[in-house]
Amino acid sequence: GENVEQHPSTLSVQEGDSAVIKCTYSDSASNYFPWYKQELGKRPQLIIDIRSNVGEKKDQRIAVTLNKTAKHFSLHITETQPEDSAVYFCAATSVYNNAGNMLTFGGGTRLMVKP
Amino acid sequence: NAGVTQTPKFRILKIGQSMTLQCAQDMNHNYMYWYRQDPGMGLKLIYYSVGAGITDKGEVPNGYNVSRSTTEDFPLRLELAAPSQTSVYFCASSHDRGPYRELFFGEGSRLTVL
Predict the structure, then answer these.
(1) Staple B34 to which of A97, A98, B4, B46, CB 3.0 to 4.6 Å?
(2) B51-100, pLDDT tens digit by residue?
(3) For residue A41, what is the nearest residue in chain B, using CA coordinates?
(4) pLDDT at A101 over 70
């Protein structure tokens, strides 16, 4: 089955700096890579995703990159703000080989943005 | 729409007790999932369902059971609770329109087994 590893487990940055979270996956058949954000005590929510037919996707201050050859993908947050403080989860799945569209999640990264 | 609703939010169980975590969604989603989140860890899939009457095991199904008699409800049953089941449990749902599906999570149920 799929295995997703996520690094770092904690990340502390100064407000305004950039933050990068990296994930690697094991199954070359995986073709969908979403990122979920979980604020303290809240439910995880989808913030951005990328499909295997593109190498990069941006949405305002966040971007995701995908390297299929190396089997890794990353989340980039620019101009970080205190409200970006949360736990971020990467995930991977093969949407065509997976009847339940089951996501395999990474272990999470706790991002702390210091004002 | 209320989205995905889970009850209870908090529960303390004694070893060996049983309980049911309730999950309901009002988005007419066919796909529903139960995940557990251990401290400092990612989300592990316990069970999932692709429609009423259909359930299947995820990564960590031992000690749990599910049923799906309606599209809206997907309860998770814990039999003979053990300390290893202390965790936060999230129910989620997604539509089945196309292969790229966003998961909508409930607020979570924090379970402690003592």
Answers:
(1) B46
(2) 999 999 998 999 999 999 999 999 999 989 999 999 999 999 998 777 77
(3) B107
(4) no
CB atoms within 10 A of CB B65: 15
Quick one: pLDDT band at residue A94, thresholds 50, 70, 90? Answer: confident
Please, which residues 67-106 of chain B have a Cβ atom closer than 8 Å to chain A?
A: 90, 94, 99-103, 105-106
Contact B40 A103 (CB under 8 A): no
Token pair recorded at residue B94: 């997604």
